Amino acid sequence: MIEGAEDTNKLSIATLPVTVKVVQVDGRAMTKAVFRQIVDSEFEDIDSGNPRGDLLGWVNEHDERCVGLGDHLHLLWRDKGNGEIRKSTLVTWTSSASGWRESRLRNLKPDDPEREQVERELGDVRLNHKLLYEELCKSQQLFIAT
């Protein structure tokens, strides 16, 4: 038994307001089928780790392609370049998030003078990615129809 449950005078039910943000297309709720047709494009610039557009929010829509990704977000965003709506899957960190620096570092010898610079740049990109991911986790969740 739950402590205090025997005294019904302590029991109460509260009504709280809830805000649900629904993605709409022409005034109708976006469906999973429409969401899946949006062009996938990298939200994060692979050279800087900075966003390539304006975040609209994230969608809790997972399928078989998500297996093995670990923590990740499905983003809906507007491309700064052409204004088109895009989606992206952003994971906490992968070597692909660091672009060419990761492979360049693997090919440099330990005593190569360029190694220190590439390591520093890679560290900066990783930090930018971490900060971006943490910020995106705090952003608004968007809902789509089933």
Short description:
With 146 residues, this protein is an alpha/beta fold. The protein has three helices and seven strands; from the N terminus they run βββαβββααβ.
| Helical coverage, percent range | 25-40%
- Provide the domain count: 1
Q: How far apart, in Å, are the first and last alpha carbons?
A: 38 Å
Average pLDDT figure: 82
Q: What is the general shape?
A: extended
Please report the total strand number as a whole number: 7
The spatial strand order of the largest sheet comes to 1-7-4-5-6
Integer-rounded radius of gyration: 21 Å
Beta-strand proportion: 15-25%
Q: Helix- and strand-based class? A: alpha/beta
**How would you sum up the major sheet?**
5 strands, mixed
DSSP helical segment count: 3
Task: Note down, in words, how this protein is organized.
It is a single chain. It contains three helices and seven strands; from the N terminus they run E-E-E-H-E-E-E-H-H-E. By secondary structure, it is of the alpha/beta class. The strands form two sheets. It has a five-stranded mixed beta sheet, with helices on one face. Strands 2-3 form a two-stranded antiparallel ribbon. The longest helix has 23 residues, at 115-137. It is extended. The model has no long low-confidence stretch (mean pLDDT 82).
